[in-house]
Amino acid sequence: MSEPALTTADAVESPLDDAALAAAAHDRRRWVILGVIAIAQLMIVLDSAIMNIALPSAAEDLGIPAQDISWAITAYTLAFGGLLLLGGRIADYIGRKRAFLIGLVGFAVASGLGGAAQSESLLFAARALQGAFGALLAPASLALITVTFTEGRDRAKAFGVFGAISGGGAAIGLILGGILTEYLGWRWCLYVNLPIALITLFLGIKYVQESKAPGDRHLDIPGAILSSVGLATLVYGFTEASKPKADGSGTVGWTDPTVVTLLTIAVVALVAFVIVETRVKNPLLPMRIVLDRNRGGSYIVFLMIGAGLFSMFLFMTLYFQNILGYTPLRAGFAFLPFSIGIIVGAGVVSQLLPRVGPRPLMLIGISMAIAGMLLLLRTTPDSSYVTTVLPAITIMSLGMAAVFIPASSTALVGVGKHDAGVASALLNTSQQVGGSLGLALLSTFAISATASKLTELAGGAEATQAMVETARVAGYHVAYLGGAVLMFVGLAAAATLISAKKDDLPADSAVAV
């Protein structure tokens, strides 16, 4: 909403205009702060997608074996997902602005180290360092939105920007990654973070205001250790289970001793974490945050939508490049309608949210996302992008906009001043961990389905290229169907748990600067 123009002469004529000038300046400052946060969030979201495109070139340049290259993604995911809750609480205690700036600088330095890497070990270490600082930067960013925008309509607009970036950033990253890799080299997929971070750092120092959690700021060390170990081993276990066997006969699977050990450690650590959090004086994750039905429902929605969305991006990227023969750059541009749909949808949803409330939008949005996933079952080795893929990803993108924005808002409704950072971190954790677990789970199903279909088609004879492509698409279909099922769980959670009305969204108990 635009403000009327105010001049110094007007202020002299009427003392009341001093207050109007101050209010207008405060309003402009808030939107500048949102712009700063948006740039940082975009940098985080872009990173994984960019690296997916850059990995083949990086592997060739550094001589990384095929079975090890996935560690460039896994190292980041383990650090990011495992440390998010701790990062959120640190942001609450040391100050969200300070955490934001530290995370920003650290992420940029780690990006520079990765870009300059001359060995696979240094690249993997830099990626893990990126994940660690990202785990501080991401929850601080969302917490700053929470403390900056407390009025319902403006908060909806702010979350509209956040939702558009969260949903469409991956598709933009695929395009940017293709351009950088093709014309400048894979290292620039990491170096690109340096100028972005420098500009954001300057603006953040100048405009972002500091806020901290009031009261007790003693860090829950046992909870921090247990949550980090539990989340990291959970993601690692799922990732290991989905790795292809050396003989190409399928995946490592869920009965592999290493996988069983990792998942057992994860379960024990996470159960112990919950027990500890109910007993310590100042818990890392107060159970009151999770047990609220609106917040808990929102976290489940983000978990399940993240699981389905991450898998869609991976398998559609494989479909474009391995089946349709697209170059990395063309594959990135094939996702452009998804980004446009998210951005357009976010603008509409941010206007509707204060009027109709979050639940109807979320139900419609998840239903559209499920429909889009199911439409991808129509793909074949010779499908037309325009008639088969485009309708599916367009419907899905519009649906995602109607999910991300309301769920981001309801996840923070009623959060007290002490808990803004950790509540924001849990939202990020839900999406990141959900995406990692869903991707690993659905990859296992897809690889097994592909192997089974290829055996069926070949019938003991040598498989032709056409058979291989048909079998791969059949595996992708299993992943799309699995993604739709996971999203349906999110739909059930939204239908049964989300009860917040439009009047609840301003969240009077939410933090104010």
Characterization of this structure:
The protein is mainly alpha-helical and 513 residues long. The protein has one domain: Growth Hormone, Chain: A (Up-down Bundle). The protein is built from 18 helices and no strands. It has helices at residues 8-13, 16-62, 71-94, 96-115, 120-148, 152-183, 188-191, 193-207, 221-241, 257-277, 287-291, 293-323, 328-334, 336-356, 358-375, 385-410, 420-458, 465-497.
Mean pLDDT over the full residue set: 81
Unreliable segments of 5+ consecutive residues: 1-16, 19-23, 506-513
Share in β-strands: under 5%
Q: How many helices?
A: 18
Q: What's the helical proportion of residues? A: over 70%
Write down the CATH class. Mainly Alpha
Our count of domains comes out at 1
Structural class: mainly alpha
The major β-sheet equals: none
Number of strands: 0
What is the molecular shape?
globular
Task: Supply the CATH architecture.
Answer: Up-down Bundle
* Separation, N- and C-terminal Cα atoms: 21 Å
Radius of gyration: 23 Å
